[in-house]
Every structure is written in structure tokens, then in C-alpha cells.
Write a structure and sequence with these properties.
MetI-like fold; 551 residues; SH3 type barrels; five-stranded antiparallel beta sheet; alpha+beta
Length: 551
């Protein structure tokens, strides 16, 4: 009897809903923790182990590497693969060893059965070298060659670190020279070519302008030769020094310091040094450009492209979505036509995103972009300017995709405002527009902001439509730079979601790319939460401001 009375109060449903929300929060939190653990572990300086391994024939070999994973594998699976397994255990442990040196051995990962390990230790002198290509090198330091002199291994670690710093500075100067000075010259040469092409399209009867163009082109070429000579000097300096390394099997390798990014000895690092290395590696991941088919380096262009695309999408979708919702709720006559439009908007919210991508490709890129090229960029044809995928078309496509969400949220927000508020405003002499703009719309703004939050969350994670309208594996330059008009909406861009897809499914080195998938996924979650947090704070402030007026 008491249970029936308790159930009639509705309390069981409250507790059931609370339990469901708690379970969902635990699942989401557990997923984020798993992603963070698997992704952030990639930046920790794992110790290097030397393993003496005995294969099926009894021959022994020595491996040097970092233990990345450990898993249990069945004897049956190994026997089906044609491997002889020692002992009688049904399940065996094996470890994934990152041995590096892909340019020497052809592979930088290897699975090793723990049952076949004869001996293992951690050599104090083992060194890990991060390179600009071919992944990391794991071995021992023999010395540093600076010009014609060789600093031997016992005294070379300090000289090695100094040489790495000098090479890093030279790489930064080379990058700045190529990106800024030489890049600006190439940009001006391209503008001169377009001016010349425009004169040809207009009839070519302007010898004075053509002569000015040729004079300016010659000046730019002379400047280019000066910068090219300076660039060659930098390359000679950076190629002068080499580091002499040795693999675990005694093979000697002379590695130019131009290819070395950093080096560390993980087995001798203290906890403080490891934490410092972890933070530096994490910062490099979020602030540098990718390398090695996106399996090395950072993801800064993808972060920048994701945030910029979402911001442009928000600027486009918010006013149109709010205006659409206002028209449907406040101005449209509530008849069969309005009901049909409302049903169409609701149905558009469920259309697969790839359909929007196909529409964006056909309408925005080919039709609208092609027309813009024909009208305003004829001198650049047949190379398209806006007639190809780019940041602007991707933002418009996602704005179209999320437009129904904002319209529906705006309508629901307006519907929550009591009719008495409108009538009171009109009774005090306000016009219909003044009532809407100064009273109803501010009170409905929390609901409208909820729609914007949902739109941002969906847009930040979409990948399928972007693959058709502008996102690329690797963008040569950011959409924002120092060249007029500074914001280049026609450029292709990188996106965190597509970066995850590319690294996870298109990478030639699966084992090396796996931790980067988790790290990039964690970044995408954090970026989405950050973008949503701004809108949530604004919504909560508006809700607190107008809470008393809604009752």
C-alpha cells in the first residue's frame, strides 16, 4: 500500500530519470578519460628497454625500443598463424615494442611474445631522436661531428643539445624567409601575372601598363635572387653538423642535424624532467603543423580551421535562423502553408549530412562559385578561385545543415513567452515591432541560445559534407595571413574531424597513428566544449536576467 502511494507521487520516475542521467554522465566521463589516457600517453617519455629475444629456430636477437602496448593473445591464434609457442599456457602475453629506425629496418613497431624474452634491461645511454622524417631513431650516441671535428660520445651530449638548438633556430629562419619574404615575392609576381592577363582580356592595348608590369617583375626577380642566396647560406649552415648514432645491432648512422628536432634519454630522466618533456610535447602537438603524412608533428592548422569555420558558420546561421523562427511564430498566418513550411523545416533537421555536402558541392561550389569566377576572376581562369571547395563554402554548407535546429529552437523559445506579456506591451502603447524587439525577443533569448549551442556542437563534429566542399588532408597555408584581404575565404583548410578520419583510416603507419587518433579526438572534444561553454554562459546570464518575467 505504501509503495502504491509512493508510486502515485511520481517519485519513482524522478529517481529513474536521475539514475539515467547519472549513468549517461558516467559513460561520457569514462569515454573522455579513456580517450585522454590513450592520447596523452603518447607524449610521455616512456623508458627504452633492451630485449634479448629468441625466435622459433632458437636464434637470438637484440631489440631496443619502448613498450607501447601489452595484450593477451590465445595460443590457438598464434598456432593458426604458423608460430611455435613455448610452454603449455592457453593464453600468452605479448608486447608492442616501438623500435623506431624505420628507414633502416622498414618497420618501427614489432610484437614480441614475453615467453620468448630471454633478458631485458634499461640501458642508461639509450637515446631517442625525433626527426623531421622517418619517425624516431632509437639507439646510442657515438658523437657529434661539427665541420671536420668530432666530439666523442662521452662528452657529446651537451654539444648535441646545443647543435639541436642551433639547427632549430636555422630551421625557423629558413621557414620565416620562405613563408614571409619569398612568399610575398611569389604573391606579388602572381598579382602581376593576373594584371597582365586582365590587360590581354581587355584587348592588350596598354603598352605603358605592360612596361610597368615588366619593370616591377624584374625588380621582384632581383629581390628573389638575394633571398635565394641567403636561403642557400642557411641550408649550408644547417647541413654542416651531423650526429653519429649506433643501432642496437652495431650499425653506424650519420644523421644530419637538419633532420633532428629533439633528442632525449628517457632512462636517465627524473620525474620533473619527464613532466617537463610531457608538457613541451603536448604544446608542440597543439602549436605545430603535421608531418609524415599526419602521423607526426602537431595539429594547429586543423584546430585553427575548425574554430574559424564554426565561427563563420555561426555568423551566417544565427541571424537567418532567428529571422526564420520569428517569421514562422510571429508574422506568418497559421494556415496550411505555414504548417507545411514547419514540417519541411523539421524534416530537414533529419536529412543525412552527406546530402547537404552534395548540395553544397553542386550549388555553392559549381554554380555560385563558378559564376563568381566568371564575373570577377576571369583572369585567373582556368584555375578556379571560388569555383572549388573552400572555407566559405564549407561554412555555408554547415550553416544550411544547422539552420533547422536554430529555427526550431527560436520558435520554441518564442512560444514559451506568455501571451499576456505581448498584450501588456501593446496596451502600454508599444508597436508590434517594439514589443518583439524589446520585450519578447530578449525573454526568448535563452531558448535561442540553446539552438545555437546545438548547432555549434553538430557543426564542429561534422566530417562527411566537408570532404566535398573544402577540407583537405594538408593545407599549405592558413586561411588568415598578412596578405590582403587577410582573411582568405576561398582557401582550403584542415579540420580536426577529417584529421581523425585521415590519420585513423588512411595512414600508412597504423601503429604510429593510433595514439594520435585519440589525442586529436580529445582536442576535438575540448574545442567543442570550449565553443559551447561561451554560448552556455551567455544563455545562463540571459536566463537569470529574464527569469522573473517569464512567470
Amino acid at each position: 500500500m505504501r509503495f502504491r502511494q509512493w508510486a502515485s507521487t511520481g517519485a519513482p520516475w524522478i529517481w529513474l530519470n536521475a539514475a539515467a542521467v547519472a549513468a549517461l554522465l558516467l559513460l561520457v566521463g569514462g569515454l573522455v578519460l579513456l580517450i585522454a589516457f590513450r592520447g596523452l600517453g603518447h607524449f610521455w617519455p616512456t623508458g627504452v628497454e633492451r630485449i634479448v629475444y629468441q625466435d622459433e629456430s632458437g636464434a637470438r636477437s637484440t631489440l631496443l625500443g619502448q613498450v607501447r602496448e601489452r595484450e593477451e593473445i590465445s595460443r590457438q591464434r598464434l598456432e593458426e598463424a604458423g608460430q611455435e609457442v613455448p610452454g603449455e599456457a592457453l593464453d600468452l602475453q605479448r608486447i608492442l615494442l616501438k623500435t623506431g629506425n624505420r628507414d633502416i629496418s622498414g618497420s618501427d613497431f614489432r610484437w614480441v611474445l614475453e615467453a620468448r624474452i630471454v633478458q631485458r634491461d634499461k640501458p642508461y645511454s639509450a637515446v631517442v631522436v625525433e626527426r623531421t622524417e622517418w619517425g624516431v631513431f632509437i639507439g646510442h650516441l657515438l658523437g657529434v661531428r661539427q665541420g671536420d671535428s668530432l666530439v666523442p660520445g662521452n662528452d657529446s651530449w651537451g654539444a648535441f643539445q646545443q647543435a639541436i638548438e642551433r639547427a632549430s633556430r636555422l630551421r625557423a629562419e629558413i621557414s620565416e624567409l620562405e613563408r614571409d619574404q619569398i612568399g610575398e615575392i611569389n604573391h606579388q609576381l602572381e598579382q602581376l601575372r593576373l594584371r597582365e592577363r586582365r590587360i590581354e582580356l581587355d584587348g592588350g592595348d596598354n603598352p605603358v601598363a605592360l612596361e610597368e608590369i615588366e619593370t616591377r617583375r624584374q625588380e621582384l626577380r632581383e629581390q628573389y635572387l638575394v633571398f635565394e642566396a641567403q636561403l642557400e647560406t642557411y641550408y649550408e649552415q644547417i647541413q654542416r653538423d651531423q650526429v653519429v648514432l649506433e643501432t642496437v645491432d652495431g650499425q653506424r648512422v650519420d644523421l644530419p642535424l637538419a633532420n633532428v628536432i629533439k633528442a632525449w634519454r628517457p632512462n636517465e630522466m627524473s620525474l620533473g624532467n619527464k613532466i617537463g618533456h610531457f608538457l613541451a610535447a603536448g604544446w608542440a602537438f597543439v602549436s605545430e603543423a603535421p608531418r609524415e603524412a599526419n602521423t607526426e608533428g602537431g595539429v594547429f592548422p586543423a584546430i585553427f580551421g575548425t574554430v574559424l569555420m564554426v565561427l563563420i558558420m555561426t555568423v551566417v546561421v544565427f541571424p537567418f535562423g532567428v529571422i526564420g523562427g520569428i517569421w514562422l511564430r510571429e508574422y506568418a498566418r497559421q494556415g496550411w502553408l505555414t504548417r507545411t513550411v514547419r514540417i519541411a523545416v523539421n524534416n530537414l533537421a533529419g536529412v543525412p549530412s552527406i546530402v547537404y555536402g552534395v548540395f553544397g558541392l553542386g550549388f555553392f561550389v559549381y554554380a555560385l562559385g563558378g559564376s563568381i569566377d566568371a564575373l570577377f576572376f576571369e583572369e585567373a581562369l582556368p584555375m578556379p578561385t571560388f569555383g572549388t571547395g573552400g572555407l566559405f563554402w564549407a561554412s555555408l554548407t554547415l550553416a544550411l545543415l544547422t539552420l533547422p535546429v536554430v529555427i526550431i529552437a527560436t520558435e520554441e523559445g518564442l512560444a514559451r513567452i506568455p501571451r499576456t506579456v505581448r498584450e501588456g506591451s501593446l496596451a502600454l502603447g508599444a508597436t508590434r515591432w517594439e514589443t518583439l524587439w524589446r520585450t519578447v525577443l530578449p525573454m526568448a533569448s535563452p531558448g535561442i541560445m540553446t539552438g545555437l549551442i546545438l548547432a555549434v556542437a553538430r557543426a564542429a563534429g561534422e566530417v562527411a559534407p566537408l570532404m566535398l566542399v573544402g577540407v583537405v588532408k594538408l593545407a599549405p597555408s592558413l586561411p588568415v595571413d598578412g596578405q590582403f584581404p587577410y582573411l582568405h575565404l576561398e582557401r582550403k583548410f584542415m579540420h580536426l574531424g577529417f584529421h581523425i578520419y585521415d590519420v585513423g583510416f588512411q595512414s600508412p603507419n597504423v601503429e604510429a597513428a593510433r595514439p594520435l587518433v585519440y589525442a586529436t579526438a580529445l582536442l576535438l572534444v575540448l574545442v567543442t566544449l570550449l565553443l559551447n561553454a561561451v554560448a552556455i554562459v551567455a544563455r545562463n546570464r540571459l536566463r537569470d536576467k529574464y527569469r522573473g518575467l517569464e512567470t
